[in-house]
């Protein structure tokens, strides 16, 4: 059995093995013990192919994530103090390789946005997964140790106009 590595190849292999196993199981009554042995062999190969498919799928997600985030080199957050977290304006500056037509290559360029809601998806992912220590303490206080949850509570609070929970008292 060949060891295919792409998702499509592994999916095709799974289909073929599944069909082969079905045919062999139909022949067990006619052939007897040799068919049972062959069915066991194909079932093991099918299980192996499914495991490799799951691994390849997980690896593909990680490779795509690394590809999205490799263009980022820096992110900085500047807060202008407001009366509370809900009316504190944040300016986010991030450096990301961007195509330069004059240079005919991707060069680091500083981008800026006002507020986390305006932040590019990849820049948000970079902040939350690579640089979570740069997230303002006021936001992290909403869900200590969990940047995704903290931002979720922050965005809900922005929409609602107030935040709930222990962090409000702090």
Total DSSP E strands: 3
Main pleated sheet? 3 strands, antiparallel
Q: How much beta, percentage-wise?
A: 15-25%
Secondary-structure-derived class: alpha+beta
Poorly predicted tracts of residues: none
Quaternary structure? single chain
Mean pLDDT: 84
Distance linking N and C termini: 62 Å
Shape: elongated
> Topology as H/E string?
HHEEEHHHH
Q: In order across it, which strands form the biggest sheet?
A: 1-2-3
Q: Approximately how much helix is present in the residues?
A: 40-55%
Radius of gyration: 26 Å
**Number of H- or I-type helical stretches:** 6
Folded structure, characterized:
By secondary structure, this protein is α+β, with helices and mostly antiparallel strands. Helix content is 55%, strand content 17%. A 3-stranded antiparallel β-sheet has the order 1-2-3, covered by helices on one side. Helix 1 runs antiparallel to helix 2.
Compile the SSE list and pairings.
Elements: H1 7-31, H2 33-69, E1 72-79, E2 90-100, E3 105-114, H3 121-129, H4 137-140, H5 147-160, H6 166-169
Antiparallel strand pairs: 1-2, 2-3
Summarize the structure.
This protein is α+β, with helices and mostly antiparallel strands. The chain has six helices and three strands.
Question: What are the defining features of this structure?
Answer:
about 170 residues; alpha+beta; three-stranded antiparallel beta sheet
């Amino acid at each position: 059995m060949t060891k295919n590595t792409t998702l499509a190849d592994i999916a095709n292999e799974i289909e073929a093995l599944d069909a082969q196993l079905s045919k062999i199981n139909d022949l067990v009554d006619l052939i007897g013990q040799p068919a049972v042995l062959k069915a066991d062999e194909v079932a093991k190969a099918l299980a192996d192919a499914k495991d490799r498919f799951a691994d390849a799928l997980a690896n593909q997600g990680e490779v795509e994530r690394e590809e999205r985030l490799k263009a980022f080199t820096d992110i900085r957050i500047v807060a202008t103090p407001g009366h509370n977290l809900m009316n504190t304006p944040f300016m986010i500056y991030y450096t990301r390789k961007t195509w330069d037509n004059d240079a005919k290559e991707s060069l680091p360029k500083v981008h800026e946005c006002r507020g986390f809601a305006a932040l590019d998806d990849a820049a948000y992912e970079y902040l939350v997964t690579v640089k979570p220590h740069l997230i303002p303490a006021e936001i992290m206080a909403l869900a200590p140790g969990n940047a995704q949850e903290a931002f979720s509570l922050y965005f809900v609070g922005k929409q609602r106009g107030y935040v709930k929970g222990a962090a409000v008292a702090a």
